[in-house]
């Protein structure tokens, strides 16, 4: 996982702008998560559900106001591997995801963590910490 300004997946490849930062703000700004997963292929497990949650430094979900009321900041989706993916002879299948995030009103001078699960299980390398800068006194 990589924090960036924006990301796009095209032809199975990640295209990343402004990647590799870990401090933002204090004002809300758009951002993105670029993910490359290597999923082991076997005919019994072709369907995968992924979820990405934003948590505070204490591991609690970040709750923000939305059109539906107060909601945790989370993104989710499903992956279905082709029946016979190219190159699946004993090697993992590359899956790239680009999750573009609108500006979030996060507290200044605070640490956060994006956490990835696949089929409800935490993933190696599936956490990404970042912080917001302190508020600027005017």
Q: Could you explain the architecture of this structure?
A:
With 138 residues, this protein is mainly β. It has a single domain (2-132), classed as Immunoglobulin-like. It contains no helices and twelve strands.
Can you summarize this structure?
The protein has 138 residues and is mainly beta. The protein has no helices and 12 strands.
Write the layout of secondary structure elements.
Layout: E1 2-4, E2 6-10, E3 13-17, E4 23-24, E5 31-39, E6 47-56, E7 63-66, E8 69-72, E9 74-80, E10 93-101, E11 111-118, E12 121-132
Parallel strand pairs: 4-12
Antiparallel strand pairs: 1-5, 2-3, 5-10, 6-9, 6-11, 7-8, 11-12
List keywords for this structure.
138 residues, mainly beta, Immunoglobulin-like, five-stranded mixed beta sheet
How far from one another are the termini? Answer: 35 Å
Strand order of the largest sheet: 4-12-11-6-9
* CATH class division: Mainly Beta
Radius of gyration: 17 Å
Please indicate the count of domains: 1
Helix and strand pattern = EEEEEEEEEEEE
Kindly report the average pLDDT value.
Answer: 91
> How much of the sequence is in beta strands?
over 45%
Task: Describe the sheet with the most strands.
Answer: 5 strands, mixed
